[in-house]
Amino acid sequence: DAGVIQSPRHEVTEMGQEVTLRCKPISGHDYLFWYRQTMMRGLELLIYFNNNVPIDDSGMPEDRFSAKMPNASFSTLKIQPSEPRDSAVYFCASSFRSPVYNEQFFGPGTRLTVL
Amino acid sequence: SQQGEEDPQALSIQEGENATMNCSYKTSINNLQWYRQNSGRGLVHLILIRSNEREKHSGRLRVTLDTSKKSSSLLITASRAADTASYFCATQTAGGTSYGKLTFGQGTILTVHP
To answer: A46 to chain B: nearest residue by CA?
Structure first.
């Protein structure tokens, strides 16, 4: 299994531009999570899906952020318009069945720099 | 706000020594997990301990959980330079709006010198 796949691995953009991050979860996993990691705030859960349906988006910082999961094998996190304070590493993770007892598998992350 | 808080924030030891990291949390949990993050990489799951368990072992790792004190510890025995990484505790609760969420602490940076 290839594990959780994220693209791009690095993204450098200018303030005001739209940014789209992509994630392919592990096949068969029915939970998908988007996290953001910064030095100041650590790891934050932004949103998570169960069977492609958003369950909890309370961590999404503001309306500039949106996430979709059109099918079981693909999810996107979009920032529009981007701002310098959005610079961070964004991780996607997936898990199988109930995540209450199961581990989450993390992708390698996308390092976003907004100039 | 962070559920788990690790202590110490940074730990520097020599190869062969044991490393102990602590985690405290605030609310009732269903389980607590420990993850490792190597520099520039994603997190990797190490071990999970359920709320009704007190101790768990996996290779050189030993995890304890004290639900009365809302704390956990991760012990790495006979450390190696390859253990150099950040270690995070994460808590999961069941039910309510936080079902399935993992809430991470700020992590402990472990450096093992050869």
So the answer is: B101
